[in-house]
């Protein structure tokens, strides 16, 4: 049992999100009062699961509307809080205006929240959800390592507005958080850098990247084969618990890569097949690089720049610091994938 030593409310930004919803669930199960921020309390599609949590824990989940770009918007929700867990940040793979849709909300939102932390003297600790994308952008960055292993000492050096702007937004936001933290001495900052999060969802939303990724694996989208791409993967429930550990352990410090395993797409498919057999039209092979490029040309699934910097590269993510500093224990990828497919089945989504 993770026990957070505070009787003050805990602020959770972006409370309706895929991972944040699990954080809210665990905090409420432990009896904490959670101040959750959302963009629109009247969006029933995004809020339904929070309403269920509220009914299960009456009076413990207090929701506030707050926009990342509205300076001072988090002040009311943060009043009296002892811990701030900042998860709110847009996650979009494709965008027409990355500066407006990704960079500004991530960077300005981090400034907005942390400048408010500077003003609310009850706050003692901030747990920031960054991403492994702030550690590594393109997989070719592994060539700059001596052993093919990436650690918390690495920073994303390959992303910009045109190339993987989401990764760029997470890098800028995390660096800004460390800058603001280092300019004061009252509150501590602990940063979590999760790999690609998979696993069951508390929300019924269908627009999540994780949900769409696994649905495409099992619905035949990649029946002809998957590209030679490598992912660090981690269970969303483990990431949520990591946030509680980061908030509860007084000695927790620094960045923490959260990753259970590093797998190729075809390996993820095989993990699902090992449990479900031939129930789904899973991809059975890895496509040749020339075919992946040709397919991308006609389907627009990946840019050539992305493929040239990620296709065929293999890397490892060192999670040893999260194990040592946060006492993390990770579910194997197969358990995560099986639970997620079962969850999709129960909701009639596959």
Could you walk me through the main structural features you see in this protein, from its secondary elements to its overall organization?
There is one protein chain. The protein has 350 residues and is α/β, with parallel strands linked by helices. It has one domain (10-346): Rossmann fold (3-Layer(aba) Sandwich), CATH 3.40.50. The chain is 41% helix and 15% strand. It has 12 helices and 12 strands. It has helices at residues 18-29, 44-56, 75-78, 98-119, 165-182, 209-218, 236-248, 265-276, 289-299, 304-310, 320-326, 333-346; strands at 10-13, 34-38, 61-65, 83-86, 125-129, 149-150, 188-194, 196-198, 230-235, 254-258, 261-264, 316-317. A 7-stranded parallel beta sheet has the order 3-2-1-4-5-7-10, sandwiched between helices. Strands 8-9-11 form a 3-stranded mixed beta sheet. The longest helix is centred in the N-terminal third of the chain and has 22 residues, at 98-119.
User: Helical content, roughly?
Assistant: 40-55%
The CATH superfamily is identified as NAD(P)-binding Rossmann-like Domain
Walk across the major sheet and give the strand order: 3-2-1-4-5-7-10
The CATH architecture is 3-Layer(aba) Sandwich
Shape: globular
The counted number of beta strands is 12
Query: Which class best fits the helix and strand makeup?
Result: alpha/beta
How large, in whole angstroms, is the Cα Rg? 20 Å
Query: Strand-residue fraction?
Result: 5-15%
The profile of the biggest β sheet is: 7 strands, parallel
- How many structural domains? 1
CATH topology: Rossmann fold
Number of helices: 12
Roughly what is the average pLDDT, rounded to an integer? 93
Q: Give, in order, the helices and strands.
A: EHEHEHEHEEHEEHEHEEHHHEHH
Please identify the top-level CATH class: Alpha Beta
What are the low-pLDDT stretches, counting only 5+ consecutive residues below 50?
A: none
Multimerization status: single chain
N→C terminal distance: 34 Å
């Amino acid at each position: 049992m993770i026990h957070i030593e505070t009787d003050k409310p805990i602020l959770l930004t972006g409370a309706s999100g895929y991972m944040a919803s699990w954080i809210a669930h665990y905090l409420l199960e432990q009896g904490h009062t959670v101040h959750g921020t959302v963009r629109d309390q009247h969006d029933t599609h995004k809020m339904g699961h929070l309403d269920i949590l509220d009914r299960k824990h009456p009076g413990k989940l207090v929701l506030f509307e707050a926009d990342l770009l509205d300076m001072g918007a988090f002040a009311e929700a943060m009043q009296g809080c002892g811990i701030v867990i900042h998860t709110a940040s847009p996650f979009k793979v494709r965008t027409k205006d990355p500066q407006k849709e990704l960079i500004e909300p991530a960077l300005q939102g981090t400034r907005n929240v942390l400048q408010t932390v500077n003003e609310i003297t009850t706050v003692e600790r901030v747990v920031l959800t960054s991403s492994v994308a702030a550690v590594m952008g393109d997989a070719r960055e592994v060539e700059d390592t001596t052993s093919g292993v990436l650690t918390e000492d690495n920073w994303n050096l390959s992303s910009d507005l045109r190339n993987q702007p989401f990764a760029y937004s997470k890098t800028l936001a995390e660096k800004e958080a460390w800058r603001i933290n280092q300019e004061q001495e009252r509150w501590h900052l602990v940063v979590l850098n999760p790999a690609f999060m998979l696993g069951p969802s508390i929300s019924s939303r269908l627009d999540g990247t994780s949900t769409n990724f696994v649905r495409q694996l099992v619905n035949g989208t990649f029946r002809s084969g998957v590209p030679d791409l490598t992912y660090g993967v981690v269970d969303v429930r483990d990431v949520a618990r990591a946030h509680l550990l980061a908030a509860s352990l007084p000695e927790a410090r620094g960045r923490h890569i959260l990753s259970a395993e590093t797998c190729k797409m075809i390996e993820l498919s095989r993990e699902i097949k090992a449990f479900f057999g031939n129930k789904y039209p899973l991809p059975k092979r890895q496509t040749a690089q020339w075919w992946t490029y040709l397919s991308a040309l006609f389907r627009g699934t990946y840019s050539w720049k992305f493929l040239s910097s990620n296709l065929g590269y293999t890397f490892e993510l060192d999670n040893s610091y999260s194990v040592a500093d946060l006492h993390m224990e990770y579910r194997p990828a197969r358990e995560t994938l099986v639970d997620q497919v079962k969850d999709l089945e129960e909701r009639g989504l596959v």
